[in-house]
Amino acid sequence: MATKPYLLFPFYIYPDADWQTLAKLASKQNAIAVINPASGSVSTTDPKYVSGVQMLQAAGLTVLGYIATGGGAVSSSDIDVQMGYYQSEYVVSGIFFDQMSPSASQISYYVGLAQLARNHGFSVTVGNAGVPVDSGYTNVFTILCTYENAGLPSITQIQEACPIQGQKYAIICHDVQSVSEQYVLSISHYVAYCFFTDKSEPNPYNALPSYFAQEMSLLQYSTASSIARTVVLFVTFVALAVVSLRYVLG
Known about the structure:
The protein is of the alpha/beta class and 250 residues long. Helices cover 39% and strands 18% of the residues. It contains eight helices and eight strands. It has helices spanning 17-25, 47-58, 76-90, 107-119, 155-161, 181-187, 212-218, 223-249, and strands spanning 6-10, 32-35, 62-68, 94-98, 124-128, 143-150, 168-174, 193-196. It has an eight-stranded parallel beta barrel. Strand 7, helix 6 and strand 8 form a beta-alpha-beta unit. The longest helix is centred in the C-terminal third of the chain and has 27 residues, at 223-249. It is globular and about 55 Å long.
């Protein structure tokens, strides 16, 4: 059975009670939250974000900083400065590179950004093109987001957007009124991270989805289920061992 996708939340919400809700519901679930304290170009420090990031990290979330790349139009030096702010002021674990170009002509640009991120000590990088990308982007970033749009993509769309085995992919879906466990399981063979919300443009990420608690439940196997699977595997192993022993002893 494939592992269910983890949460990748473009969490463009100013620190408030929603941050506490996220910390509670996504605690220790390998979730990723992307903060955007300056709406695209960070150059100052907001103390509320500093304490909010610390709270999310204490709950076990991985926090990334948002940087817009303009499809390759923003200079690497400008982005390097922004990464420095995120590293020194917000102490995030990585960078979410938005507005990523899917074109092969920009691969060297994004390879350079990934190297700059590693130079800053960031362990996680996400490239968000929102559409399928050239195969040359494989393994440039830790995660490639190759679908960001309204509605749920079909399995055919996901297969086209997430074709390379071994590359971690993500999808971000807004204007989604509900999500079933069957759908989550069906995409788990292709998608490592996802986010669903019923919110709409122009900013579908400035509030929690109305069904966020249900979403977190869908994305995680319960502890009880994990224990049950472990017990079944152990009992099966013991039964096979007993049969093998009887065979050997005649």
